[in-house]
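Worked Example 4.2. Consider the chain below.
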Amino acid sequence: MELWEIWLVGLGAGLVTMTVTWLASVVRRDASLVDRVWGLGFVVLAGVWAYLGDGDGVRTVVVVTLAAIWGLRLSVFISWRNWGHGEDKRYAAMRQRRPRTFPFRSLVTVFWLQALLAAVIALPLLAATSLGAQRQLGIWDAIAIGVWLVGFVFEALGDAQLSRFLADPANRGKVMNKGLWRYTRHPNYFGDATVWWAYGLFAVAAGGWWAIAGSLLMSVLIVKVSGVALTDQQMTGSKREGFDEYVRRTNAFFPGPVKD
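Applying the procedure from the previous section yields the following C-alpha cells:
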C-alpha cells in the first residue's frame, strides 16, 4: 500500500472509533466522552499503521509500545478525573445554544473533527512505523526515547501532583506551586508536547522528516488553543489566591528557575 492509503485506513479507523464514542455520548448526553477517548484514538492509529506499514520492526515495536503507554494513561486519567462530574462545561454550552440539533452537529464538529486532527497530529507515528525498512535503530532513536521519557514523566507526574493537591480540601482556592509546578505553570502540557516531539524524532530517524508537522501542530494546539492559553484564561478568572504572583515568578511552559 502507498503511504497515503495507509494514512487513510488509519483515519477511517479513527472515525469509526469516534463514531462509536459519539453513539455512547448521545445515550449518556455527555459529549465530553470524546476527551476520554482522545488518547485511545492515537493507540488505534499507531496499531493500524504498524500493521499495514513496512517500517523497521524494532522501531515499530518501540514506537507503538510508547504510544500505547502514553495514550492509555491519558485516557484512563481523564476518565478517572471526570468520573461523576457530568458533561464538560464547554460541550454543555454548545448543547445549550442549539439543544435539538447538537447531537448530530457534535458528530461532525466534535467527534469527527477530533478524529481528523488526531490523524494529522499522528503523522510522526505513521512515518516511524511505515518507513525506514532498511534502517537500523541509531542515535536519533536513542535521543527520541530519552526525550519521550522526560516528557512522559513531566506529564504523568504533573497530573498526579495536581490531582493530589486538588483532592485536599485545605487547598481550595489556592494555587498549585509545588513539585514540578514550581518550575512551570503547565508541566503536564510541557510533557505532552515533549512526548510528541519525541515521536517526531522517531519519524526523522525513519527518514520521514516531513512528519514533524504533526509534532508542531500538537505544540501549537497545546500552547495557543486548548492547553496553556485556555487554562491560564480560566485561572485568571478564578481569582485564586496568589495566582498573579505565581504567574510573575513561574515560566508559563518551559521549566525554569523561580524568578525573584
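The chain has a mean pLDDT of 93. The longest helix spans residues 139-167. Compare this with Example 4.1 before moving on.
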